[in-house]
Amino acid sequence: MLSDDALHQNNFLRPGVAPCLPASGWRTSRWLIGRLFFGLLAAAGYPDLARSEQPEEPQAAAERLAEQPPPRLRERFRFAGERSGLWPKSWPRLRGSSAAGIGGSLSVECDLATKTWEWSIALPGSGHASPVVSQGRIYVTSADPETASRILSCHELTDGHLRWRADQQATRDHHHAQNSLASSSPIVDATAVYWSWASAERLWVEALDHEGRRLWQVSPGPYVAEHGYAASPAVWEHVLIVPMDQDGPSSVVGLDRKTGRQLWRLPRQTARTSYATPLVLEGDEPVVILSSMAHGLTAVDPRNGQVVWERACFPRRTVSSPITVGELLVATCGEGGGNNLLVALRPGEQENGEPEVAYQLERGVAPYVPTPLATAERLYLWGDRGVVTCVDPASGATRWRGRVGGSYSSSPIAVSDIVLNVSADGDVVLIADADRFEVLGRRQLDEPSRATPAVADGRLLFRSERRLYALDLTRP
Fold first, then answer.
1. What pLDDT was estimated at residue 7?
2. Angle between the N-to-C axes of helices 58-66 and 23-43, in degrees from 0 to 180, rounded to the nearest 10
3. What pLDDT is attached to residue 276?
4. pTM (2 d.p.)
């Protein structure tokens, strides 16, 4: 239930787009101008240059353009991190640097269903936290099943070798059967790795440098939750954002990344504990998007903790994390019985300080725990009970539905033209990012898993309860 995903961030960019000429008229005009220009070059005594640089004729150009993929949805948000089409060099937080779950668009050189693991290692404890990657190192949190101590371990990306581990004594707090003592994912930047855990009804946050040396440790306050702790922190520039929407007194806290000093605290209403990770969106006016039952979706200024806007829209608990889909902000709420709701907001269109609702999707379509995934032209809703729904991202209209089986707490990610996710039983399912449902293959981990995969430097990483696995995407 609580191997949560992804927090997101919201920001609005320049709304303008360059005007377009009709395609056929523009290509013909460009060809005529090119012919005149290179004809002048030839007359001036440069025949070789004129021959080598002549543009394509209109028909050839039209055929070449027709082979290109269709245009992608225009994005109006800028993420706090890279969103490159190449393999990501790092995966510094849950679902990658942009929190979008996009693992690059380079062609996968192997069959992901049958390829032998590049390496597989045992972790020093068990848990559901997702791995993060920076500068060739993997960071992952676990808990000792005997002592309940929390563990942050650092491993080499190339072979999984353990570089160091940091242990923290903690209590064996109650948690939901689908949660664990280590479900919160760490986040890493150029200087430090940050992680959080709850113990004895208090929340703890710690920063360590890349060699495992403690930089600071603080407790932002009490933490009480019926199902245990699982939310992950987020980062904007010098601020570490720690969500504390819980069963007790709720708040979100901004800490100084270098010292752990509290920069601001935003008190929040209390409803049912939220497990959503904040979404950070940059720009001239940066915002952090928070998701909770008590407040719905809230945009907060990370510089001072002030509310920018809010839309109350969730009647139930939030577990998945918000994402941006083109001009929309998408998030879900739900409950164990499947009574779920997806809401898509238009942050750029507001009335009385509240964003407009673009559409809503209910019950059998909206996921509860898995965070939605937006690729170039499709929005994937990977249901907790193994039904995947592909919808039009702009309207929410269903394109197709398909059953993959199993139950899911992990969130899907995309690698090239493949969408993949991991069931609670450790079944890795690969489907096509396409306009029809197609299962491309399956493979098994050695044990259950509720962690979201990661992609960094050409490697695809999976975390089961007690193990870490890597596939090399660059070789057959």
1. 33
2. 130
3. 95
4. 0.82
